[in-house]
Amino acid sequence: MTLSSVAARARPSAVQVVWFKKDLRVHDHSPLLEAAARGPVLPLYVFEPEQLHHPEFGGHHFQYLQQCLAELDEALGTLGAPLICRHGEAVQVLEALHQDVGPFALWAHEETGNGVSDQRDRRVRAWCRARGVPFTELPQNGVVRRLIHRDGWAATWEERLGAPPGPPPSHLTPVPVRGTPLLRHQDANVAPNTKTIPPGGRRVAEATLASFLTVRGVGYPAEMSSPLTAEASCSRLSAPLAFGTLSLREVVHATRQRLAAVHGDRDADPRWVRSLRAFESRLHWHCHFMQRLESEPRMEFEPLNRAFDDLRPGWDQLRYDRWAAGQTGYPLQDACMRMLAATGWLNFRMRAMTISFASHLLWLPWQRPGQYLAHQWLDNEPGIHWAQVQMQSGTVGINRLRIYNPTRQARAQDPTGAFIRRWVPELRDVPTDFIHAPWVWSGASRLTYPAPIVDAEQAMRAAKAQLMAARDTPRFAAEARRIYELHGSRKKAELRAERVARGLPAKPPRGGTRARHVPDLDRQPGLFDATVAAPLPAIRPARLPGSWQTALTDAFAAPSFHQLKNVLTAERAAHTIFPPAPEVFAALRLTPLEDVKVLILGQDPYHGAGQAHGLSFSVPPGVRVPPSLQNIYRELHQDLPDVSPPRHGDLRRWAAQGVLLLNAVLTVRQGQPNSHAGHGWEAFTDAVIRAVNAKPERVVFVLWGAYARKKARLVTAPHHHIIESAHPSPLSAAQFLGTRPFSRANAALLEAGRSPIDWQLTPDAAVR
Ligand SMILES: Cc1cc2nc3c(=O)[nH]c(=O)nc-3n(C[C@H](O)[C@H](O)[C@H](O)COP(=O)(O)OP(=O)(O)OC[C@H]3O[C@@H](n4cnc5c(N)ncnc54)[C@H](O)[C@@H]3O)c2cc1C
User: Fold this and answer.
1) Which end of the chain is more exposed for a tag (fewer CB within 10 A), N or C?
2) Does 292 contact ligand 1 (Cβ within 6 A)?
3) Where are the alpha helices (DSSP H) in 81-191?
4) Is 420 in contact with 449 (CB distance < 8 Å)?
5) Is residue 147 within 8 Å of 37, Cβ to Cβ?
6) Torsion angle of C-alpha atoms 390, 393, 394, 396, degrees rounded to 10
7) Ligand 1 atom nearest to 370, measured from its CA
8) Where is the Photolyase/cryptochrome alpha/beta domain (predicted)?
């Protein structure tokens, strides 16, 4: 049904019921926006017993849901119409509402859910038709209802998700009606949560998105597959997307914005572009797989490819129990099942390995292991889940058959066994050489860990033989053609056609495998604690002037600044770092924001002992004047003959007059110039430059050398003045000398009615 045909039927100003399901937000919510434009709004959430007691639903889902609903209620309340909750079967709840408020129009997002929600939606549609209630379901992702084939699907995805996210409604007119308070576990008869899960709600979801796009995601493609790195390096947005506290469009939009920002930024880590592109491709997959369940809902229960109907007829309860309990005797497989039980999350490759183990190595029918996993995932998204379960169990038949070898995966993804030891403590003392196959270790008999449940190599060979035999039938071929038509991605075919059209070989050459960095698990940031994902408390360096504290609040609270702080703590523990910690922020301390008249930007601090004291180009009294500063003094005297160079290199007298002597990177390792570049200082000092740029009165920006000159892009206010030239270092002194920056700076200040700088330094020591 189109939006306009429904709108024509819905009487303006009749009550508009907005039914929230898996879309628990007010932002980018088209049913809410459309309803608000038409009349008073009744935002409804229905606690449905058949969903709450579904085998896939658990206490962790309920706890997360409660937190999402509490925040949604708060957001709706701010707009004028708090959330109304009711408990019961959806049609009965709607019928009761009809009695309470009279005729209404019903709005919701299209949902691609499990069989229970599919049947429920059918009953609701039938009830609406019988009652004459206009019911509008609007898409919220790239899944297309009543799709006939996949041609052109990607264009629809782009049309929907490439559009900008919608704003929340400006105001909601409430409908006076009674709801139930948010249900508690005991009211809903749902078991309490036993997992350690992130908090639900939009606020944490937004912070998770931000920390991924600005900090955590930089190594995404290289780090997504190992369980050592994936926890922090994957986005962790699957639960916010499954509960709808963020819309997929919002995530696509933020990713593209970030991609545009890093593209033009030569200071940005070059890995970002590849990482963000790889991430965006997963956002396509999200809908690509959901579309399969939408188009063929029976795939929750039956093999997608009917040639596999009788493939795994038997059931082995003991095998299943050992698999679910993490007791198969294969260490990585067991570590994953235990982590899943404890946290409700695994990365993609480990998810694929766990179901592959059950379906191929244990030869169990995929339905019950699939249901067990769906129950465990906090982010359970039936469309993605069942499509993946079938794909990894080999029952789709349009992809290459892949069976994961649990020992080979363990060696590749957890080479030192750190992840295994964390989740399978019985193996803690097994030497690393044997951690992936403890049964061959001489001490195996002393372990309280089981022997392998099957011989993996043999089981894999047997599974492959059975699957290949089933593939070798006319029924399989016909089914594979049908499945490709309805469900197959057209991306590879389109790429192949494009390559051939350009005269390239149809297949690109395969790249070599690169060595992977293995991180230290204990050094990984806690994901959903205050250091990364939750809104971060601002770090406040001591004794900073209030003006800087206010202007840099966001910079001090940014995830990148917290990470920088951790890097510096580790660096100071292992190396000599300059300047000494109390002097790192000396430039900001000596020149409050309100006093800044001139900003002289350097690259990073001097790296020799005793030289750096927190001001660009300056050294403390008693330290030999470095060559760059000698050239600055030469130019100073040439430019202003009345000013005579001092015998020291202490520039604090300039700082006291409003010359902000800032370096782009504020620390360095002894003897290793520029060693702290790329750790996060640049983002911080860019924020300092932006704060200076925001001053209403003129500031002169003195940018010496190619590095500093790149920062000219941050100086956008037309009333400021930029003086650029070569760097004063002996390497470029010839181009620096004669540029007269001091007199030009004073002229620019005078022109704007500001008092000039007295560039004369005291002959022997700085005056504070
Ligand atoms: C057997 C199995 C079951 C799965 N069940 C679910 C499920 O119930 N819910 C779910 O969200 N994902 C599921 N996935 C896909 C994937 O493993 C998770 O989306 C991912 O691990 C979630 O973590 P993340 O958000 O940090 O992922 P990221 O790598 O940061 O990816 C970002 C988003 O892209 C989408 N995405 C990523 N990988 C895939 C993929 N392979 N297929 C489809 N979409 C993808 C998800 O929306 C994910 O949140 C399943 C995978 C397998 C093998």
Assistant:
1) C
2) no
3) 90-101, 115-131, 153-161, 185-188
4) no
5) no
6) 0
7) 1
8) 14-143
**Is 357:335 a contact under the CB 8 Å cutoff?**
no
Residue 169 is classified by DSSP as P
- In 472-529, which ranges are continuous DSSP H helix? 474-487, 491-501
In DSSP notation, 632-657 reads HHHHHHHHSTTPPP-SS---HHHHHT
Task: Please name the helix (run of DSSP H) or strand (run of DSSP E) that holds residue 226, with its range, or none.
Answer: none
CA angle 483, 489, 494 (to 5 degrees): 125
Smallest CA separation from ligand 1 atom 4, residue: 385
Predicted pLDDT of residue 509 = 54
Angle of CA points 486, 489, 492, to nearest 5°: 140
Residue type, 121: D
Q: Is 234 in the pocket of ligand 1 (CB under 6 A)?
A: yes
What pLDDT does 478 receive?
A: 86
**Alpha-carbon gap, residue 261 to 280, rounded angstroms:** 15
Beta strands (DSSP E) in 515-567 are none
How many angstroms separate the CA atoms of 522 and 84, rounded? 44
> Which ipTM value was assigned to this complex?
0.99
Q: Tens digits of per-residue pLDDT, 103-126?
A: 999 999 999 999 999 999 999 999
Specify the 3-state DSSP secondary structure of 56: coil
Residue type, position 468, single letter: M
Closest-CA residue to 91 (of 130, 60, 58): 130
- Among 248, 290, 348, which is best to mutate for testing ligand 1, by the most ligand atoms less than 8 A from CB? 348
Cα–Cα distance for residue pair 755/738, rounded to 1 Å: 24
- 61: Cβ below 6 Å to ligand 1? no
Helix, strand or coil, per DSSP, at residue 137: strand
> Which residue type does 294 have?
E
**740 in the Ramachandran plot: left (φ > 0), alpha (ψ -120 to 50) or beta?**
left
Residues of the chain with pLDDT under 50: 1-10, 12, 511-516, 522-535, 766-768
Residue among 620, 634, 610 at smallest CA distance from 728: 634
Residue with tokens 């900073």: 544
Residue 27 Cβ < 6 Å to ligand 1: no
Pairwise CA distance, residues 128 & 91, whole Å? 9
For ligand 1, what atom is nearest to the CA of residue 212?
30
Q: Whose CA is nearest to atom 8 of ligand 1?
A: 380
The string of pLDDT tens digits covering residues 370-384 is 999 999 999 999 999
d(CA 621, CA 132): 87
* Burial of 382: CB neighbours in 10 Å, binned 0-12, 13-18, 19+: buried
Please name the residues in contact with 282: beta carbons below 8 A apart, sequence gap of 6 or more. Answer: none
Which residue's entry shows tokens 């309805």? 486
Residue owning tokens 């058949």: 50
Of 73, 414, 604, 639, the active-site residue reads 604
378 lines ligand 1 (CB under 6 A): no
The C-alpha atoms of residue 652 and residue 616 are separated, in whole angstroms, by 10
Is 604 annotated as catalytic? yes
